[in-house]
Amino acid sequence: MSKGVSPAALWILTAAFALAPPVLSLAPLGMTPLMVAAAVLAVGAERIQNGSWPPLPARAAAFFSVFFAWCALSLIWGLNPSGGLRKLVDVVLVAVSLLSLLGLAERLSPEQGRRLSWVLVGGTVAGLLLLAIETVFGFPLYRAVIGNSAKLADLIESKRSADALPLLIWPACLALTRLGRPWLGFLLALVFTVASVKLTASSATLGMALSLVIFAACFASTVWVRRFLVAATILAFAVILPLSILAYDHGGTTAHWIKHSGQHRVEIWHFAAQRTLERPLFGWGFNASRYVPNGNEVSQFLPPGQSIIPLHPHDAYLQVWLEIGAVGTIIVAGILLLTLKAVGQWPAAVARFTLPGYAAGLVIAGLAFGIWQSWWMATLAFSAAAYRMIGNQHA
Questions:
Q1: 231, 240, 249, 232: which is closest to 326 by C-alpha?
Q2: CB under 8 Å to 380, separation ≥6 — which residues?
Q3: Which one, 79, 152, 238, 240, has the greatest CB density within 10 A?
Q4: pLDDT tens digits, one per residue of 317-363
Q5: d(Cα 97, Cα 140) in Å, to the nearest integer?
Q6: Spatial separation of the C-alpha atoms in residues 91 and 337, rounded to whole Å
Q7: What is the mean pLDDT of the chain?
Q8: Residue 395 predicted with pLDDT over 50
Q9: Using an 8 Å Cβ cutoff, are 237 and 320 in contact?
């Protein structure tokens, strides 16, 4: 049994676990500096006080290295090599931070894991209360710091937070279970699912609804649920191109039952799928989505001359296909499948909460953010680290 990480490293992790939910609720872009700072300071403190570096997960590090190498290679034929390189540096920083925190997780003692559980639960409650205050009372904190902004219209500012919070809700549910309060964890997930409807966060609501179904199924068998998610992951990458084209061809941009934003995304997905088929093997280059030329196509939703893909395709699977092609898609899918394989080695009591969180992440990644946005990558990474630290197998 591990004797635990050094006192200084534990205090740094404690601060990060306490701050992450409020930061994600009020200032999501702050997740990147929080994640990187926590990893650098905690690993540094561990090296100074315990005299050794925490080991990096070898297999995960190897997969990430192959991914980084392919993304860097794609910049040779990419549409914006300099911008792609800057973005790749961000992704590398987040990934190395994740690997470092996973190394620290192996050294945590059961008592330290319980401490982080309490802190994450407290931070999550605080974050949700702050988000509720902001949305109910017209964003007083945001206005005090930033002033009036167009982003306050239609709860746009809170939508980003609500869409990403499921990635911390399920680790908090795991923490409550570890602390002997499993039904409070289920109640937390249920309440957030209902509240997300009021926050206009459709992807969060859909992701949480699916994750609740996955959570219920896990009580029957975490093994079969994990196999289902393996198949779902492979299927997501395999069918996204034809589905995007079929949705457009069958009136997805004009269907009255689809919201205006959804109709626009159908157009974006169709365009991204078509452009992917022009360079299916190698893609258009890492982080090149916004620079893909329109050709002779004109958007139904944007002024003439603007790129049909505004910033990113709003679908992680399409973005991977479009930018780094079939080769990159295989690598990314391999990383996700490696994650599920690792979860299969965890106790069922831990996997029961990790698998719903993974399912929620699959849905939200397919509907909301650009996959390489550093704050979104940092949120995904922090969630993965939280599962490992709170669900430590020594517990």
A1: 240
A2: 167, 361
A3: 240
A4: 999 999 999 999 999 999 999 999 999 999 998 999 999 999 999 99
A5: 33
A6: 19
A7: 89
A8: no
A9: yes
Q: What share of the chain is helix, strand, coil (3-state, %, to 5)?
A: 75, 0, 25
Out of 147-151, 228-232, 299-303, which region has the weakest mean confidence (pLDDT)? Answer: 147-151
| 360/307 Cα distance (integer angstroms) | 30
The share of the chain scoring above pLDDT 90, in percent, equals 64
Going from N- to C-terminal start, the domains of the chain cover 7-106+115-236+314-390
DSSP 204-257: HHHHHHHHHHHHHHHTT-HHHHHHHHHHHHHHHHHHHHHHHHHHHHTTTTT-TT
Q: Which residues contact 89 (CB under 8 A, 6 or more apart)?
A: none
Whether 273 and 240 have beta carbons less than 8 Å apart is answered as yes
Helix axes 81-105, 31-50, angle to 10 degrees: 50
Burial, 235: exposed, middle or buried (Cβ in 10 Å; 0-12, 13-18, 19+)? exposed
pTM over 0.70: yes
CB-based burial label for 220 (10 Å; 0-12, 13-18, 19+): exposed
Angle, helices 222-249 vs 348-365, to 10°: value is 10
pLDDT at 330: 97
Q: Which residues lie closer than 8 Å to 72 by C-beta, 6 or more apart? A: 85, 88, 286
